Amino acid sequence: MRKLCTLGMGALTVAAVMGTGLTARADSAGPAAEHKVPGYQIVTLPNANVPNFTRRTVFCPFGKHVTGGGGEAQGPGAVLVGSFPRADGRGWIALGRQTGFGSVGISVYAICAI
Q: In which domain, by residue range, is 28 found?
């Protein structure tokens, strides 16, 4: 079962990702050019298995702030437990759990703008 909460499309950039050793990507061609929000960009943190209830965070590029976001929990019995912005407005956090397993696949998405 998959739970999904995402918004929009975005721009190709690389941003640092906290606590994962991974890099987040966003798409730079396409629908982003149609948006009238200055610096509009979607930054994604690809799916990775983490222990249940572990927060995964994706950050907006320097100079941008989060305007929205979402997360996705993947795996049998996976549940997205939380999806919310960082208190400082620099990124988005998601966490989940998977019934019967010690880990769950979590993806995170942040909508960023200037």
A: 3-113
DSSP category for residue 89: S
Closest CA to 63 of 4, 9, 15, 6: 15
pLDDT in tens, 37-88: 888 999 999 999 999 999 999 999 999 999 999 999 999 999 999 999 999 9
Note whether 103 and 52 are within 8 A (CB): yes
- Phi, psi (rounded to 5 degrees) for 87: -60, -30
**Cα torsion for 45, 48, 53, 54, to the nearest 10°?**
-70
What pairs with residue 52 in β-bridges? none
Q: Is the entire prediction scored with pTM above 0.85?
A: no
Domain count for the chain: 1
Query: How many Cβ atoms sit within 10 Å of the Cβ of residue 112?
Result: 30
